[in-house]
Structure formats: C-alpha cells, structure tokens
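Morning!

This is the sequence you dropped in the shared folder:
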Amino acid sequence: MGNEIKTATADSATLSAKKVIEIQNLKIGFDDIPVLRGFSVQLFEKENLVILGKSGSGKSVLIKCIVRLLIPDSGTINVLGEDVNKLNDWDLAELRKKIGFLFQSGALYDSMTIKENLEFPLRRIKKNLSKKEMDEKISETLENVGLSDTLHKMPSQLSGGMRKRASLARTIVVDPMIMLYDEPTTGLDPVTSDEISALINEVQKKYNTSSIIITHDIECARATADRIIMLKEGEVYMEGTINEFEKSPDELIQSFFKTKNLSTHVTT
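The structure's back. Tokens below.
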C-alpha cells in the first residue's frame, strides 16, 4: 500500500514493562464506511502513547472502543488483563473505574461547584472515604493541577484552560491506572496548551498512569510522547519516537511536523 510502517526503537525499560492495553486487528465502520481497518497497538505501564492523525482517521473512535462506548465489528481489546468485549455490565463498570477519560469538551457539571464535581466520582468509586479523607483528597488533587483556589467556584467562573484542569482533576481524583486523553489541547491558546501538556507529564509521574493521548497538536505530541503512532485511513502509518518522526523524509509525516501546531487555538 506504500505506507511507511516503522517500529519504535525498543529500550530495555519498554521491553520489561507490563502491557496494560493490547489491541489486536481492531475493525469498525459506520454505514459500510470503514474507520479502523485492522488496527493493533500495545500500551505499556507508565507510558505516554500519542496517537496522531487527521480528522476522520479513527483516533477518537479507538478510545471509545477501549471503554466500550463503541463496539467494534471485529478484533480484540484487552485492558488490564480483561477482554473488554466479553465483560458483563458489572465487570465493565468495575474496569471503567480504573480508567480516566478526559473528554475534549471537559464535561464538567455546570450546576455543581468544582468541589462538588470532584466529590461526584469519589462518592461513587471511593465509597469508604470519610468526609475528612474526601476533603483532603479533593484539596490535594486541585493543588496538583494548580487550582487550589477554585474549590467553591462554578465552572462558568473559570477560563477554558482552568476548566480543562478542573476536568483533569475530576478524572484523576479517583486514582485511575490508565488515562485516555481525547484532544486535550483543542480550543486552547498556545501558552495554555503548553501548560496542559506539562500537566499530562506531571500526572504521569505523580500518579504512575499509563496514557493514550489522542491529538493532532504536534506541540502536545512533542511535549508528552514516549512513543507515537500515526494513523492514516484507520491503519498504522508509522510508529516511532518523536525524533524518528521528525527525521522521517516521508511527505505525509513532514506535512504534520513542518507546521508548528495544527490545532486551532481560540480559548484563553
């Protein structure tokens, strides 16, 4: 097919790391139009994996399949040792508790304060926490994302970047093992985008998360990626390190990397 398929340079840490997600030959389409065409990938413990691709290449569909918001036509998805597509509703709900999903929109509850937004998942997932423990956990998490002074504010009182941070705080407050980021910097100005990228790295270190970062923001990829996979028409076009991508002579790769940032930044 003429695609450049390249395997990332494997270091000793990657070789010895535990697989937390393994996807084999994933296929899914809509209205007889294929979106993912036999996609396979592995995510390793404490790794930031960036998946790049143009709009419509299947990036967001992929992470929705991982948490079974979408059911693929064929292929296997193994998350933390569980075959996602074979789980009953109870076991699927238990698995989802271990996965943090940062939606592109942020998806905060507008009628709740920031504290109440963080209390909501805590009450559902960390049911044994006392009120004092819950308050301490919320305060610690907000401090970790630089929002200590927003406890009693409403989402409408925050800037776009602060809302994104609050959404991330609500996701990590329950200590997920895996983070799925869907276009985390879309709609943000370049400075705030850089701050969110730095925060993704801080979350990886502080919470020992394994992450899939869906983006077409090259600066976000440069800042966060331990490994990159580029999708083209639902297939792996190239896999490698940021250095390997930037040195690639391939025209499609260069069309991404010659532009500093392909995201549209509008919100401060």
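Headline: The chain is about 35% helix and 25% strand.

More detail when I'm at my desk.
O.
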